[in-house]
Amino acid sequence: MPYDLDRDLAPIAQVTDTILSVTVPASSEIKTIADFVKAAKAAPEKYNVAGTAGLPQFTVDAFIKAQGLTVTKVPYRDVVQAARNLAEDRIQFLLSSVAVMNALVEGGKARVIAIGARQRSPLYKDIPSVVEAGYPGLVVETTAGFYGPKAMPLELRKRVGADIATAANDPEIVTKISRTGQDVRTGGPDQLAVTVKQQAANTAAVAQILGMAKK
Hints:
5-stranded mixed β-sheet; about 20% strand; D-Maltodextrin-Binding Protein, domain 2
């Protein structure tokens, strides 16, 4: 990128997290990630898996390698097609945003077995996070936040961040954001900086497992 995040920009506020989910066909007997791992080890090459193009796909690749699974990785340019194929049981494991999966889940064609984050989502309160499920390597978090120029004073950033948090936590706004498959998780400049560093560390760990980066 033509800029350096730490050098050129100053964090103002963390606003939302995109919710990702691990889903399986509704017809599947698999209810947990542990179930899938056990089933895939018992029947090598039987299962087809996929992740949304980009970091989710790499994360699924790292999960497969770390667990020693022999499965078929199916690449998709269009995650909507992947969701459809999951509902048809043509693929059996998908890591993607819940925004793509919601209609199929509500229609009884797909089942969410874990949320791809450190904590549960208010949208799926009864579904464990991948960390709770014992598979932290499947954490994929994408945070939306506000940044300003590097010279922007901290006190000003804190004031602007507080106003953003007030607006984002308005019940009507929360409802609208939830419909897009995002959780409102607000925080000030320091929280956004910590969150981004955590996510960068997660990405680096995935790259190391896949041999894409030096340890």
